[in-house]
Each structure stands twice: as structure tokens, then as C-alpha cells.
DNA sequence: TTTTTTGAACTGACTGGTCAGTGCAAAAAC
DNA sequence: GTTTTTGCACTGACCAGTCAGTTCAAAAAA
């Protein structure tokens, strides 16, 4: 099927157009006409490729979180392969998260804006997709406890959620309110927090 | 003047109706008719009390963040008064944040969903209001560095943003995906992270 | 006391405009 | 010759904001 390549390219253009518009304005405030125009495509094409506006959005969410989890997992595996500790892997994942957000700020923005909304059509899609991302962090935390690197007392699901949140919000805040800072600055602030060098030492 | 009391009560009802609806559906997807109906008030009353839908929303934001900063500041001052350290004050603020979010989950949800959006009418209102909240945390961090409780190397604005983010996201995640956990569980997971007892002691 | 007036607060039907989604014939791409 | 895209007119639902009219408690007049 070569035809799927052309379709694929069109869908990609629509994703890119939709993600920035929805991040800026929100889902409801973004019109299908705007998305089509930004993508340089006729409105009919949107409906040829996606059943509806919300289906387009749901597939966009799946697409984006797929990229994120892949990049987190890769960072963690690369660290393990080169003989790093589990805490090193966490640190590498923090950096991977920051790099992702730096590359796809609009997607992150929209993900955060929609994640905790209830009563929306795509709410279940989001729950699944969130769990995939958080699970990557939980796995590393679990490994770290098994290896004795981290205390057995830590609460894995809550700590994983807090770590993800810390990275997400710190990165969005960096982009929105402190864009003059470098990725390395942000990374070391977060690293310091993770490694107990803020108020740590006990 | 009783009449101003009556107005006040109406406005309060409108805030309460709007906050849950907008948290669930987003600003654009929420209609003024819905807000009026939920508040048990005619549509005209909304426009008698607020110039427009977005003005209602902006005043709601100011109102809510006012409550939050007051509660953070109170927690910090109470700790200082009873002779606690600055790190104790940070810990107390984490708890105050959790209590606030527990009490006003809808407001928190909506705040997070809107905070990093650009190009919106209320974007500047939000920037101001965010700064007020973050500043409370920054002040305590600064004090802690001066007192020698925290290393001079920490980056105050970035660390403050990360801490706020950690609390915000952990709390929303708790409500949405792990509601069976207690506030104390969440508090101790975050506390442990702050005090370097996750991977800490270096 | 009783009646009348005042005005802030509130009401809800109505309007003008917007937008998701449809239908389809013709062109372009493959 | 099949798939994909285009362009564009159309519809029906929906919605922000308006406005002429109503309510009622308290002040002023009788």
C-alpha cells in the first residue's frame, strides 16, 4: 500500500496544525476550518481522514503520548545498558521529559489541560495513555527499591505521579514564564530536588 | 446596604456554578445558559452582574487564587510563629496546598488547564495571579537559604515552580486516579521527596 | 398606619452570528 | 481505474449578548 504514505503525510499535517491551535485556544474554541486552513488542506479532507473533530483529537493524543513514552523508555534503557544506577535512569528520564517538552511544547500544554477533565469523550483514552507514561517511571522506581537504591518506604504510584508532575509543570513554567533559562538549568534544579540536595542529607 | 449583600450572594452562586462546569468542560464548551441554570438564576442576571462571560471567568480566577495564596501564607506564618524551621514551613505549605485542592478540586483543575495557554484574553490576569502564588514559596526558599537551611546553590525561581508543580499535579492525580489514598499518604510521599528521603542523602 | 413611588435586581424570549458536519462533481495523484 | 483531495454551497443546531418588562423591599408621601 503506497497510498497509505500520502494519507499518512496528510494526517501528519493535520496533527501538527491541530496541536498548536488546540494548545493555544482549547478544543472547543478551535474550528475545523482553522485546522484545515493551517494544514493547507481542504475541509473535506479533514473528514475524509477522520470521522469527526473529536476523533482527530483522540488520535492526536495517542500519537503524542506514544512519542513521549517511547522517549522515556529509551532514556531509561540506554542508562541501564551503559551500567548506570536506577537513580541515574530516573535522572535520564527527567532530562528526556524536558527534551520532549522542549520539542513539543504545544502537545504537552494540551495534554496537561485535558488530563484531569472528567466527563469528556476522550477521558478514557487519556486515562489509558497516562497510565502508560506513568508506568515507565513506576517500573524504574520499583527496580530501584529492589536493588536497594531507594528506601522500601516510598510509595511508588504517588511518587511516580509527583515526579511526572514536577517535570511537566516545571517545564511548562520554564517555557511560559522563564524562557531565558537553559534546559540544563532546569534539569539541574529538578535533579537536585530528586537527589535530596535541596533540603536533604537526611 | 442589604442590596449589596444580595448581589454578593448571587455572584457567589455564579462562581460556584461556573467553576465546576468550566473545570469539567472547559471555558468555551460551557455555555452561559448552563451556568445560569446551575446557579438557579436567569441568564440576564449573569449579564447584570458581569460584563461578559470572560469577565466572569477572570474574576473567578482572581477570587480563587486569592484564597489559595492566603492559605499558603497562613500556613507558612503559623509555622514561623510556633518556632518551626523554613523547611517545616515548606512542608506546612505543601499540606496547605493539598488541603486547598481537596476542598476546591474544580478550581485547581481549571487553573492548571488554563495557566499555560497563550493568546487568551485572561492570559495576563493569570500571569499576575500565578506570580502571587509562586512568590509565597520563593520567599520561604529565600529565607531558608539566608538561614543556611538550604544550599546557596539552589535556583529559587525554578525550584519554587517545581515544588508548586509537584503538589498541583500530585494532588490532581490523586483525586482523579487514586482517590482511595488519604491526604496523609499524599502528604508524606511529597514530604519525603522534599526532604531528600527518596534517593537522598546523596 | 396605609398608600404610593422608586430603583436595584432580576427575568426570559429574541436576535444575529457561528460552526460542525454533509453532499457532491470535478480534478489530481498514484 | 482507484484513491485521495479539492472547492464550495448548504443546513440545522447552538450560543453570546440584548432588552423590554417584572418583582419587591424600603423610602417617601398621605
Automatic annotation (TrEMBL), chains A, B:
Q: Which residues form the HTH tetR-type domain?
A: 8-68
DNA-binding segment(s):
31-50
Mention one GO molecular function.
DNA-binding transcription factor activity
Which PROSITE patterns does this one have?
Answer: HTH_TETR_2
UniProt cross-references to Gene3D superfamilies, sorted A to Z: Tetracycline Repressor, domain 2
The source's superkingdom equals Bacteria
Q: What InterPro entries does the annotation carry?
A: Homeodomain-like_sf, HTH-type_TetR-like_transc_reg, HTH_TetR, Tet_transcr_reg_TetR-rel_C_sf
Enumerate the SUPFAM superfamilies for this protein: Homeodomain-like, Tetracyclin repressor-like, C-terminal domain
Give the matching Pfam families. Answer: TetR_N (PF00440)
Q: Which ranges of the sequence are coiled-coil?
A: none
What protein does this entry describe?
TetR/AcrR family transcriptional regulator
